[in-house]
Request: fold
Amino acid sequence: MNSDMSANNQEYGLIGPFKPVPKEMIVCDYVHEKHPFGIFLRGEAPKDSTFALVLLELSLLLVITHTIHHLLKPFKIPKVIAEILGGLIMGPSCLCTSPRFAAWMFPGQSAYIFRNIGSFAFMYFCFVTGVKMDLLIIKKATKKQWYIALFGMVVPVIATGAVCFSVRDSLEPEMAKISSIWGVSTALSITSFPVLYPIIKELNLLSSDIGRMALSTAVIGDVVGIYGIVAFEAAKQGEGRPLAPLGYIVSLIAVFITIFGGNRMQMFWIIKKTPEGKPVEQFYIISILAGVLAWGFISDFLGIALANGPMWFGLAIPDGPPLGATLVQKSESFISDILMPFAYINMGLMTNVFAMLLEWSKLRPLFLIIMTGYFSKFFSTLFMTRFFEMPLRDGMTLSLIMSLRGQVEFLLFIHWLDFEMIRVPQFTMFVLFTTLITSIITPLIGVFYNPNRPYMINKRRNIQHTPPNTELQIVVCFVEEESVPSMTHLLEVFNPTVHSPFLVYSLHLRELIGRAAPMFIDHAEEENESDDKNSDMDDNGTIHKAFQTIQETRRDVIKVHSFTSVAPKRSMYQDVCELALNKKACMIILPFNVSLGSVAGSDMVQNNAKSLNFTVLDHAPCSVAVLVDKGNFKPPINTRMSAQKQYHFAMLFLGGADAREALACADRMAGNPNVSLTVIRFLAHNGEGENEMEKKLDDGLVTAFWVKYEANEQVAYREVVVRNGEETVAAIRAMNSDYDLWIVGRKLGINPILIEGLSSWSESLELGVIGDYVASVDFRSSASVLVVQQQVLRDRETNSGGMQGRISRYFNKFL
Reply:
């Protein structure tokens, strides 16, 4: 009986190709134990328990998926492709070609579990995407984005529809219907926001110009494209039932009004009930997540499609903190890492490459339709970018991004399968070509577009080469309010004067949580706006007031312009570098050892491998200074005492470009009458290891500095000769006295003899070897540390190695 049962399961089970079970046929199935008693007690195998078998299936998929993702990561293939391939490998296209494996791993109707949990996964995936999605982007969209979005949809619909009608006689009856042709044409022309966002985020393009434009264009396309999807659904439901479309439209309007008229007001009430700075109550979070199930049931019951209700429900929730951020943080990882794999297994079980190959001759018209849809989308978008005179490289990148496909398309394909509009061979072709297109496009995006390219300039923007009697433009970044006093105090002691005033751009950096689109707020332009979009930014006012206070007290020498950047930590440096580039700043000042993630409504801290400081140091278009505040570098509370207080700074000069920039900063501070400065230059014994060119540059700058301050009693200069790093450290430790600030160059151009043997001690590479030492607890100094890196004139792209660098240089010849 077992062999007959296995045969029946293979023929009539939920693993494709599908075949309806005759009504008069009875299929016997094996009932599994609910809970295993263990391999040692009864010698049971995982297949003897339903629960253990599900865990085994999920674990196997995760192993396969992570292995594929690890192998494809060097090629910039997104994670979603690895997940899809994992599902395909577990299905009848690969492992389940073995009847024994299929019967053991997916016995009986076990695929039914994956079908239902996969539906849950898609519901919550659409919900979370809706929470992060900001429809107000449409209000800020430019005409260029509207034209690109609309032209990039209309042309593919027309082209695909024309091809469909030309090969209509070769299509299957269901596929040849006008409603089906319209549905396929519309689906192939829309680039959905839920697909674009995770891929753009993975490629680290969220804060780039192209990334922002792509997200705005996708939102416009989704809003316009939903009308096409509604028309398709109404037409499909109206086949043979004339009144069904009317009921569908009425239900759609009722659901829409209930969600955006009722549920959205409830969300604002929850936000109002939540005290400022406190997390949203757990009861509200659970209620909202349960509401996703309710709207999934209602939308499916009314024939609106399972994912539409949860998606709109997510859109009704204000993005960002406190509510949107909390919902995303508490649910996103579980949905993407635990629930979505069930959806990919389900899709893999419904895909059968061999069934597609057997009917390949019948599928050629469909192949032509799919290729027409994808290519017309790419070229129509590219045409509009050229029409608006975008650079060819940027136009190619945007066209490639708008051609990406993913989870939403797979959900549509499953929906078509439920409508019996397509069968397993057609479904397999749609899935395979969608996966192939995204796999090819994603690496090409990295070839055509480098978000760091604009920052790689060859014009000097640093302190050393800025003329003395000119305005100094500085970008001051901060994450937490605690770092603001030390930053403002540094500006004070930097000695702004009437002849050399400061134009300060204060940039508050906040991590993007609970919303998809990054924000860059110019407070000079936004101060009169009070819409709900910026309601969660109100606390920025109190933080920026400290900088405004400096402007009020030193109005003649300091002007402040305030900004706020809300971006993912990984791409936050792009806003910093972009601001410095556009404002022609000569220095960026950063706080040391910042920890992002502390936002209202969140008790989680996000940690990344590379700090913000590292990425800014790597890509900055100007010089960078990192301030290590040990708690004492703050202005006195009494303003009268502030004018009388004397500061003692020490500058450690070890040679090289960074040391010269640090000396230029110390030179400006020495002009402050409240600052006394000691400059210590370290030289190698007998000139060992010195670079002749660097030595000449160092000698010239140091000589000019000493001549300038030779008669100034507040400035002292001395030289120390050392043989290795140990003697360098000993000399620094010997001069450790009552200093208020240590000023050091980071690393570029330092004679390696001076730091020989010290590299293994360094823990914070962003500070350099010497900067890390004087900032460490072992040094036992309460003085703060300012580590300076001079602007590096470079074109990283032309010097980059590896396959991607070589390919990019090849395309540069033509672009």
Summary: Residues 1-18, 530-538, 594-610, 796-815 have pLDDT under 50 and may be disordered. The longest helix spans residues 244-273. The chain has three domains: 79-448, 457-524+539-597+610-624, 646-793. Residues 457-524+539-597+610-624 form a domain with the Rossmann fold fold (CATH 3.40.50.620).
